[in-house]
Amino acid sequence: MMRALRTAATGMSAQQINLDTVANNLANVNTSGFKRTRIDFQDLMYQSLRVAGSPSQDRQNPTGLQVGLGVRAAATQKIFSQGLFEQTENPLDCVIEGDGFFQVTMPDSTLAYTRDGAFKRDSGGNLVTSEGYLIEPAVVIPPEATSISIAGDGTISAQLPNSSEPSQLGKLTLARFSNPAGLISQGKNLYTVSAASGQPVVSAPGTQGAGTITQGFLEKSNVSVVEEMVNMISAQRAYEVNSKVIQGADKMLEIASNLTR
Hints:
Helix content is 22%, strand content 33%. The chain has helices at residues 3-27, 225-257; strands spanning 37-43, 46-50, 55-56, 59-60, 65-68, 71-78, 85-87, 94-97, 101-105, 111-114, 120-121, 127-128, 134-136, 146-150, 155-159, 167-171, 174-176, 184-187, 190-192, 201-203, 212-215, 217-219.
């Protein structure tokens, strides 16, 4: 079988994964806190028909003869650049201006991390995510609380009955990672720790490199529709070209098989 057939097939497979990645980015263009994914490619092994520097009669070959065997999708990487801010009417909406993640307590008591600050109150007054997962550290907002305020350092205060001054209800903290690209996406705007991400460094907002919190805003997706459309067209054209290579290789095999007729 001609090498071109298998090589072009790896190119089509890689571009399919590329298009899948672009499709997911575009699908989440309006997802709060979403971070776009970039795909990295690597060339595959090479078949050496002649090694560079090998002797040839009374001289030395200055170059070798190698044939590449295709490409593969090597990695997908989350790009944690800051998204645009969108002002909302919800006093519980929070945005992180800078690095860091909100901490979320999962049903199995493990921690997950998110950039999505669209918080709500459950029936018990607990501060939760849109999925109902508790924010860590836990914050309880009494039903009678009014004028809820979230300061840049994460302090949550509210006006309570029979109190002339706002009462402090709790304080949000942020987690930072040495390699946030190593976090594992779990869906629902959540990430979990991996060996590559390193362990979280938890601190108050505005300290130890963590960003500050702004109330009444949400961080929009950092997906650029124009850029992703260009990537989609590029993937489509690359896929088409690789299919043409397969057609060309098949035609050459047909010609070669007809030589004996």
